[in-house]
Design a protein that fits this description.
31% of the residues lie in helices and 31% in strands. By secondary structure, the protein is α+β, with helices and mostly antiparallel strands. It folds into two domains: 141 residues, Aminopeptidase; 156 residues, Gcn5-related N-acetyltransferase (GNAT) (Aminopeptidase, 3-Layer(aba) Sandwich), CATH 3.40.630. Strands 4-5-7-14-8-13-12-11-10-9 form a ten-stranded mixed sheet. A four-stranded antiparallel sheet has the order 1-2-3-6. Helix 1 packs across helix 2. The two termini are 39 Å apart. 31% of the residues are buried.
Length: 321
Amino acid sequence: MLTREQIAIRPVRLGAEDYAGIAALYGAYFAAHDVDRRYSAADIESFLTAPDFFPDLTQVVEEDGRIVAYSEHVPSAATGNAWGDLIVHPDYRGRGIGSALLAHADARLLERAKTYIPAHLPVIARRGATAVDAAAFRLMEREGYTYARSFYEMRIALGSSPASALPEGFHLEPFDRQKHDRALYEVHEEAFSQHWGFERDPWEEWEHYVYERPNTDPTLWLIAFDDQGIAGYSINRQMRDDDPTFAWIAALGVLPRARRRGLGEALLRGSFALFQERGCTRAGLAVDAENTTNALALYERVGMHVHRTTHSYQKMLRAAE
């Protein structure tokens, strides 16, 4: 096992070399844990150039000329929560790299919090890992993290079922960014405001993650209106260039005034039908396992199943004053 002094931790560098290196690291991690997911260098660039990116809170470990571990924190000055990843290449586990990187990253977050997170808020680090990565949970528990929440990735094999008719009082309109972007943003924030860990996204972050991600395609979106404006929506995209048969529902939301009328199910089934028209054979989405809006029951009702579980762990690094 290496000592912490022997482990070469450095800040991430914005550029093609690190984007490709981090994407390759995720690829090795996913393959080792049987996760059928892939991040491209373009995906990594999108993450690392987002408005909420903190270069000083994003570190890598280099060994043998390649990136073998990665950590990030994305703190919120509004809540004190800091979400992030920490992964180690499967070939480099058992050498103390994860422990050293986690301790380093949390110390950097505490230092940054002195000037970024108000003293009346606690500083809480939150990290997740796929449920089959038992080593990650052992590491976090050794470092004082405790279990917080679980999330499901749900999937469906798309058949030939037609889209459901919209409930009475609703209609669809094509998304027009000039007309709808701010209204859709406000509807999304309201629709998710009661979810666990909710933090209102600044407009700049919403704009980046919704419009500037690879494979963004507003022609795949469904926007439902009632007599008061946007009432529900499904923001969809084809997941990857190398697998255009897989579609992803990035966000599905219905305002409280329009719930329990079948709008969410109609948007979901309508998305499936739209995916099939584009040649997709599978679709997926992510959901809080303890979702309070009955979303999990809806997804199961339309034929989706739990494909993968992620557990989130957290640690209070600083108490509120």
